[in-house]
Structures are given as structure tokens and as C-alpha cells.
């Protein structure tokens, strides 16, 4: 028990280390708003496109620090998103790229690298997923309600 307490104390006294993303593989697109395959993910660009969303997934908008006026469209397994009260989200992540169709991202860090979402912090990184996306009366994809992340 004493060892555990010492470990906890030493972790909290050390200064936080800035989060560093791995560079993308050579030949990948690194443009903000596009996935590494070079496909546009900005809501304004793809709001009228038909996007295949697998059963159990929802389209959500991610805010990029480098593109404050844009939302990036992401397909995320709804089990990893909170309910209306900010609760009951499973720990972990499961997402697909709506640009190039790459499926099976199991880590948000891996997914954020793929969609060129340049994160500056590691903790609570999924909070970059800000809005549910919905189709309006004209069939265009638009920003819906805020994703309620608690804690």
C-alpha cells in the first residue's frame, strides 16, 4: 500500500509533459481539414454528400484547433459517446473515416492522426468531438446538439 501512495504522489508532483503526435507516414496528406488519404472532411464541403454510416455509428463534428470555423465530420460508434446527461459512454473509442472509408480505428489518438486533427493535449482528447450532426429538411448535414461530456 505504501508503494502505491508513493507512486501516486510522484506522478502528481512532476510537471505535465506536452503531448507530442507522431509524424504521419511519408506520402500522407497533412492538410488541416483533410484525412491522410487527401479526402476533405470539412462539414461545409461534404454536407450534401451521401455518407455511409454503419449500424451503431453516428456522425459527429470534431473541432480542430487549427480550423476554428470548421467542423470535421467523423463516424463514431455511439457506445463510446455519452448519453444526454453526459454519462454511460464506454471507455475507449471506435471510429471510421468518412473521407477515405478507412474503418476500425480503436484509439482516438490514431484516429485524430488520420484525420489530421492536431491535438495539443492528451487528456480528455475525445472532447474534441463537439456536436452531433443531423440532416436538415433539405437533406444537408448540419450541426446538431452539443455532445455532453462530463468530468
From TrEMBL:
InterPro entries associated with the record: GREB1, GREB1_N
Disordered as annotated region, ranges: 1-22
One Pfam family matching this protein: GREB1_N
Domain GREB1 N-terminal: residue ranges: 2-151
Biased composition (Acidic residues): 1-10
PANTHER family assigned: GREB1-RELATED (PTHR15720), PROTEIN GREB1 (PTHR15720:SF13)
Protein name: Protein GREB1
Species of origin: Tauraco erythrolophus
Amino acid at each position: 500500500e505504501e508503494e502505491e501512495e508513493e507512486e501516486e504522489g510522484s506522478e502528481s508532483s512532476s510537471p505535465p509533459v506536452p503531448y507530442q503526435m507522431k509524424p504521419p507516414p511519408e506520402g500522407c496528406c497533412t492538410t488541416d481539414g483533410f484525412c491522410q488519404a487527401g479526402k476533405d472532411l470539412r462539414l461545409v464541403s461534404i454536407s450534401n454528400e451521401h455518407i455511409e454510416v454503419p449500424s451503431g455509428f453516428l456522425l459527429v463534428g470534431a473541432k480542430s484547433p487549427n480550423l476554428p470555423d470548421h467542423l470535421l465530420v467523423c463516424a463514431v460508434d455511439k457506445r463510446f459517446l455519452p448519453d444526454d446527461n453526459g454519462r454511460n459512454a464506454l471507455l475507449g473509442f471506435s471510429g471510421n473515416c468518412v473521407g477515405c472509408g478507412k474503418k476500425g480505428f480503436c484509439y482516438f489518438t490514431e484516429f485524430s492522426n488520420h484525420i489530421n486533427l492536431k491535438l495539443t493535449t492528451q487528456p480528455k482528447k475525445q472532447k474534441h468531438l463537439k456536436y452531433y450532426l443531423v440532416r436538415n429538411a433539405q437533406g444537408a448535414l448540419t450541426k446538431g446538439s452539443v455532445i455532453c461530456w462530463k468530468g
